[in-house]
Design brief:
By secondary structure, this protein is mainly alpha-helical. Helix content is 53%, strand content 10%. A two-stranded antiparallel ribbon has the order 1-2. A two-stranded antiparallel sheet has the order 3-4.
């Protein structure tokens, strides 16, 4: 299965957004190189990357749908303290897992899990 380069968003843009890196030439070149390498070395894995991107998109859509929902959890009944976002904790963990799988599939490295999402991208 080839990369989606025609419909918007393209696979390049979906990968960039999933990795939360800026749309700068250096980052885009690294992603393009990884995509090209995957296409040459393991073209069947493109479908795996696209599946991960679909999972990330679906997860984000679910998260957006729950924003309008009562997404708080009662944690203390005597003063009615609410913990916001308790329903989305599992979604955050799934997203982090899928981003790690995406990086592995594209031969990319994010420095450490604690810096997930701050825009640092490296090549292995």
């Amino acid at each position: 299965m080839p990369w989606n380069t025609t419909s918007i968003p393209t696979d390049l843009e979906r990968i960039r957004r999933a990795l939360k890196v800026p749309a700068e030439k250096t980052y885009l070149d690294i992603i393009r190189l990884s995509m090209s390498r995957l296409e040459l070395q393991a073209p069947d894995a493109i479908a795996t990357v696209q599946e991960i991107l679909d999972n990330l998109d679906n997860n984000r859509a679910k998260r957006m749908a729950t924003l309008g929902d009562a997404s708080s959890a009662l944690i203390k009944a005597d003063v009615l303290e609410w913990q916001p976002g308790a329903k989305s904790d599992g979604m955050d963990q799934l997203e982090a897992l899928w981003v790690q799988e995406l990086c592995a599939a594209l031969y990319l490295e994010l420095p450490v899990p604690s810096t997930y999402g701050n825009g640092t991208l490296g090549r292995s």
